[in-house]
Amino acid sequence: MGWFWVALGAAGAFLPVLPTTPFLLLASGCFMRGSPRIANWLHAHPTFGPILTDWYQQRAISRRVKKRATVMIVASFSFSMYMVPALWLKGMLLLCLIVLLCWFLRLPETESVAGTAENS
């Protein structure tokens, strides 16, 4: 199951409809129980590792990830609202968007001192 979640997380890095972070958190949880070696690899990965580390250590996400995720959330919900014909579905999607953004935008952000490895 861990590899399934990694695949969805990797796809989410490129597709606007899929989120990356929740899938990687699920993959990490699966690997921590099933294969600590793969869990360590995932946490050391140059792309996925910082996202997981920020979440596990600080329960926060970086400002850059938050901005990109917000744009993708709004874009995917807007596209969905454009595509569905029923007005009540558009209203439900709008309500879901508002609730999701209210929750997501309240997540704490990590503070970065500088972009270099020496300062971390």
UniProtKB/TrEMBL annotation:
<dbReference type="Pfam" id="PF04304">
    <property type="entry name" value="DUF454"/>
</dbReference>
<keyword id="KW-0997">Cell inner membrane</keyword>
<keyword id="KW-0472">Membrane</keyword>
<keyword id="KW-1133">Transmembrane helix</keyword>
<keyword id="KW-0812">Transmembrane</keyword>
<dbReference type="InterPro" id="IPR007401">
    <property type="entry name" value="DUF454"/>
</dbReference>
<feature type="transmembrane region" description="Helical">
    <location>
        <begin position="87"/>
        <end position="105"/>
    </location>
</feature>
<keyword id="KW-1003">Cell membrane</keyword>
<protein>
    <recommendedName>
        <fullName>Inner membrane protein</fullName>
    </recommendedName>
</protein>
